[in-house]
Protein 1
Amino acid sequence: MKSLSEWLAIGLLALTLSGNVAVAETDATLISENQALALFFQRNLNLLLAQYNIDSALANEVIASAIPNPSFNVEIFELSKNSNQILSSHTPSGGTINTGGSIGCTPSSSLAPGASHNCGAGEWYTFSQLVEMAGKRGLRMQSANLATQAAESDFRDAVRIFSNMVRGSYYALLQAQKNRWLAQDIVNFYQEILQSNRLKAQAGAIADSDLLKMEIEALQASSDLDNAEAAVEQAQAGLAVMLNWPDKSMKFLTDEQWPPFKNLGQDLSADKLLNKALALRPDLQGDKLRADKAEKDLARARRLSIPDITVNIGEARDPGNTVLNTYFVGVSIPLPLFYQYQGEKSQSAVTLNQTRLAAEQTELQVRNDLESALAAWKSANMVMKIYENKLVTQATQVRERLALAYQRGATTVLDFIQAQRDYKKVMLEYYTAGVNRVNAYYNLAAAIGVEPNAEFAHNADLPVEAE
């Protein structure tokens, strides 16, 4: 079992990963995926810990393991007057003899016959200790320990989910930046062509209608650039809100690098990959731990009818008794005659059935998540490879050839414009395919329950997939 301090190790992300991630006041700062994750957990760790009550679960463990405190009781009392009544008679020699009253208390000879004499207060000292029987304390400790482990699993599951949410916002910003770069590139491209075409139009080398069409396309490209700028700002705001740093929304930019893709087990058979997910998914682990806890609670509830005993050890001091000091030992046992904890037993059995059902439902969800994520990854990876290996190269080459041909008068302006449009469409789809593949990759990792980033996993105490 991990202590709270070990869970706080995730906070080291801000130190080990972010390095000198200082957001400048004037210029935007490039941040990597790891640095975005570091900033998120640095600024939201306390909230997550409070939400999943790990510290509270650890405190409950201490409470569950506590041994009942003993009690010490003191009683002081006096003997009744009747027990201290002194009846005296004088001997011929003038002495007195006791004819009644307490044997352990000798009165003074100055007392008149029949006078009452108090021999002093009686004192009782009792030490009592409750002893839990039938292993109930051990079951309570095991139940509390399982509750802590379940809370830790819930926290790991939150890290798994929130990490992908941060990555989703991060790569949405990356896509917006690439779209902006593309829009700027097209604007620059049209500006260069327009400068040449205006000179040609003045010389009568091209028709005014062709120049007008080119200018319209250039205006459209400028409009697209404005839209791309707005999309970047929106994506920056989305990432800043995710990082809980909205006042720095315009200061974040990604480093425009796709992440490296590692083998998560995609090549394993379906059964092996599923077994891997069932063994690693923290949400399923948490539900199974809660079911185990419910079993311990039910076992303890069934033993409640076995009474605990209270052991009493003490000393009695009674000056009015024949034996002045006595010691005693005793036990106290409650008898479960009228109520035998049927309610606690029934409630624990219901809780056990509910937690088992929740674990079964989560297992079905794991299976569904894995199948969907694996299919999405295979599709997104295949599409991206088509763009990388063929479409991007073809669109770029066609664009360059038609641009050169148009400048030499070997093609029409419409063919040139269509080539630019085709290039833009392919590149936008390429960037979308890239983000889809990244999201599918991390969704597959989350479905399996592994963290592809070894450095992040080490600091977050997550299962990591070996390269």
Note: The first strand starts at residue 29 and ends at 31.
Protein 2
Amino acid sequence: MREGNLEAPTRHPVDWQSPDFLHEAKLFAEMERVFDICHGCRRCVSLCQSFPNLFDLVDATDDGELHGVAKPDYWKVVEQCYLCDLCYMTKCPYTPPHEWNLDFPHLMLRAKAFKFSKGEVTAKERLLASTDVHGQFAGIPIVVQAVNKVNSMRPIRKLLQGRLGVNAQAWMPGLAEQRFRWGRAMNGNARVVTNGERTPGKVAIFATCYVNYNEPGIGEDLLKVLEHNAIPYEIVEKEQCCGMPKFELGDLASVAKAKEANIPVLARYAREGYAILSAVPSCTLMFKQELPLMFPQDADTQLVKEAMWDPFEYLVARHKDGLLKTDFKQALGKVSYHIPCHGRVQNIGRKTEEMFKLIGRSVEVKLNTVERCSGHAGTYGVKTATHAVAMKIGRPVFKAMAKDEPDFISSDCALAGHHIAQGMAQAGTPARALQHPLSLVRYAYGME
């Protein structure tokens, strides 16, 4: 038997519609098998709180072995997993094709789906994961002002903490006064399509809930960069949440409903030769990995997978095709850049870092790249029960991002960026300008 993999990890489909998937005895038998292997390895102890919890449970038994851990205590491991995928993609030596066939994140997904099927996920958690529900108030002037005012008032946040399940100290996004998908032409002015060897010459933009409802400026900056490079684009005709927040709850039926709404629309763009771009790594990953693994036989889902791009994956490939303008005019100075987990596990390399280095050939960019989990992890970082743990996980990142007193801090995941900014502020680091990488590219081009 080999000690570990020499091959790259491969993923098996998620057999979530099988009767065995939610079979309690079979689920716990698989958790016992996997937890026992993890206990004997312990390489993942530094990634998140799931593994320290597991190892502490084992170490507290009489003989230091997993069989002494009570089965109900397994949930202390499951509840700390936020499906970042780092253990699978960067640490575990026993992932397929190794014969032990470990997929810890998807086992945790199975456990979360079991819990959800039993009605054990609270209404507060379900509401927090319903981004299209609370996002519907974005763009309504009086409502936006009221919500944002409440969001900024700690005493009121404290009163609402128990009712909403959101920690009063956690940073929360405000609602946008104007939604990204409102009040603009749905396509760009450039109409000449120039395909490259690696890249389609036209782009369809999946806005994402966050860009549409909370920070439309990120989407605006993406449009400006595309227009500057004469790349025709369309904003996707209609969209719903990608399903990632529901996925993280184990609500796979709602994920399937979101898929049925989004995939037919996106598949049309894929068939027409568009590159589909999403400016939120978790949304991109949903279409690149999780939905294709949930629906491996669905041709349209697989077609969208092949057409989906991270924005910087696309821009760097465009540069390699000789089709990206490099007329950068504005220096960025010192930039601390954070690579989010759901960007790392897409297996595309450090494309945003490559873009910053490309800019650095023309103007001054002193780059500090930090490749470690910030701890935010979607709703995990704001929940009352896990916010403090999220800040603890992010502490090494907060310290690393403060190196050399940067002019800008930045992350492809806007939520992680704000989480990092909050952690740096709590650590006493002087305030730094937080900007999304797309905003910094726009700035480097000299566009206001």
Note: The two ends are 60 Å apart (CA to CA).
